[in-house]
Design a protein that fits this description.
The complex is a heterotrimer of chains A (about 260), B (about 280) and C (about 280). By secondary structure, chain A is an all-alpha fold. Chain A has 11 helices and no strands. The longest helix of chain A has 29 residues. Chain B contains 12 helices and 10 strands. In chain B, helix 4 crosses helix 5 and helix 4 runs parallel beside helix 6. Chain C is α/β, with parallel strands linked by helices and about 280 residues long. In chain C, helix 6 links the parallel strand 7 and strand 8. In chain C, about 40% of the residues lie in helices and about 20% in strands. The chains are: A mainly alpha (about 260), B alpha/beta (about 280), C alpha/beta (about 280). Chains in contact: A-B, A-C, B-C.
Amino acid sequence: MSVFEGFRFRHVTSPIHNRDPRIKFLFVLAIFVIAIFFMELLPLLVLFFVPLPFVWVAGVRREWLRSLRGAVFLASFIFVFNFVFGYLYRSYPSTTILLEYSLAMTLRFLVLVESFSIFFLTTSPDHLSLALEQSHVPYEFTFAFTTAVRFVPVLAEEAQTIMDAQKARGLELERGNFLKRVRNYIPILIPLIVSAIRRSLELAEAMESRAWGASSKRTNLYVLRIKAGDLALLVLAIGLLALGIYVRYFVQIPQLSTFLPQLPF
Amino acid sequence: MSVIETQSLTYAYPGTRKQSLRDVTLTIERGEFAILTGPSGCGKTTLCRCFNGLIPHFYAGELKGNLKVADLSVNEHTIGEMAKRVGLVFQNPENQLFALSVEKDVAFGLENLGMPREQMQERVDWALEMTGIEDLRERAPHELSGGQQQRVAIASVLAMQPEIIVFDEPTSFLDPLGAQKIFEVISHLNKKLGITVILVEHRLDLAARYAGHVIIMDEGKIVLDGEPRDIFNSEQAWLLGVGIPKAVRLWRLLEENGVVLKGIPINSDEAVQYLKEVLWRR
Amino acid sequence: MATIEAKDIHFTYPTGVEALEGVSLTVKDGEFVAIMGQNGAGKTTLVKNFNGLLRPNKGEVLVDGISTRDVSVAKLARTVGFVFQNPDHQLFSETVEEEIAFALRNFGFDEATIEKRVRWALNLLDLTEYRKTSPFMLSGGERKRVALASVLAWDPKVVILDEPTIGQDHRQKENLRQFIVQLNEQGKTVVIVTHDVEFVAECNPRVVLMREGKIVADGVAKRILTDTTLALEASIVPPQIAQIFGGLTFLGLPSDVIDVSEAKRVLVEHLRGSRR
């Protein structure tokens, strides 16, 4: 699914990739919070453009666009939902204002998608797990996360092999009505689940054999250190947040619709 | 000096009536390279699990008899404590690697033990060098071939610097060339570092040349225990259908036809040597 | 009449890996072929093109004269049975008999025929006592037999086995070897993908040796597995008997010996001969 493609990490380096994931996360969180402040189109539009230079510098344009493309379906749903219900219940003074409002809500959703997308695109899973570990998340959770990510390609391959094996026994996955098609996936799911269970047993054995749980004070080969670039990003995040708060409470935000002709309906 | 000693070891997995280990008594000397083999289901994997404490601590059930590994009694020490003395490398390379990079995987055991960072980095570098995979340091496990993955698994166990490493059919999923490379690494660890090796294998053609001690099991019991040549020559080994090296089979067939070689060859080089002597004499 | 014909096929995986680069191969009716080579040489990719699981990007594969592009996998499966490496990738039923009946039901056999075929397959693979057992309760070797039975049940003309010897002990391999040879003698076309040279050495089939997506040799096992240059090129380890005889060629002994019985015979004869 293309929306997931946009979140997958690739082996690239850039100043953005090298930033401490915790700081990056705080930055994304700041954008998220600011987005919540506003229901007006103009500031959200500005906010939408804020992460773009980061996308450019990180060199992840294609994947980032793909994630947005994947979000289009939900975005259009949000737009239509807001517009239709607002129109039906006549809760807005004019249609143009309603249009602007619906666009704003859609944009808010897209701002969220784009910022989280950049986060995941520029943070490798091991970087992420390291950040989790150092943020004092219990190691069991971090380990579960890392192991899950590590085995996703393995399970995907296995699913394909199982499908091949069953197709070679005459199983036709594309034929039949809805119910039959669902039933046809049983010969795929059962081997997959059984295999996953066997795999976890083997993993558990290997973990135990490498002293899992031997020490309550687990150490780490790598350590995340805050560097100048991270501090700069943090300052930027705080600055943006402050600006957002200032604009929210002290600045009169113009409605775009006042500059546009009123719609007839 | 013995590093593993068992006496009348008996075990049944919980919920099963059939005993997987029946009265197993054996001794492994320090620095040995021992091969453990036997038909499927004979108990070799179960025995391996006893050596590092998975039985009885992970698998439950009662482990009867005595088992001392590196001076520790298995029943009285946790798997974590045993892990510092004895390592276990499993059959499936994929399911032993958890981390997203080779380096992090090799450090996994050390992190669990709470080792300080600088010391860990040294150990990791050393383990990667010993197994010849320094160039794979930053790679993700899924990108590696089966043979490379197994070497990472070996390095991760080696990093903890155990006295003994048990290998449970480590080459099952590898092609013969990959298997040979793994045996070479194992032999290197045994000769260079003095690590006691217990290798469970079916592919005796490739592995026999490294071993000084061969143990054959069947139905939970030890049926043969001794020097490779004696074992491969014994009637029982032939009857059990164990994978006796072709060189030995040839020696046997020749002997039955009146052609006597100087000794029992367990690999092709020895066979060539002995055959040359016989053929040249004519 | 040729059963399977691959005509200059090329195949690249979506990840970009070029697995087959111009492979041409004909497997005739009733042949016994071993596709060999290092892991990653393209062996499994090649045989997956034989039953339509993969279709070549360039070139075509004909099964009984019909291009695999024109037929569905399910239809091709009737002719070309494929036994996968890991039986656990197939097993899902509640009983062994249901597992064996699965493909037969997919192919639309009537209940009476299914019953007959299931009984036949159970008997063939020595599984009759496990008829009502859950396949998950069986040992590794038994599960392999169930997987094999479930493919042989519909009596395909061609049987492809992908790495059938992995994880098997010596006796199991012996039994499997005898079984495969018997299958072939009864008229089935058998294609095995394997890197187990010792296994192949004992049955001396036709060997197709692959390396990096190409076929580098195609001929009798005796000839191919004793060629040291080829072995180096394709990164395979020759059978132990071949290695032994490789070191004795200067004595005038033949170099194409790969199995133990023939080795004994040759040596004994040579010694008797030179005694004169």
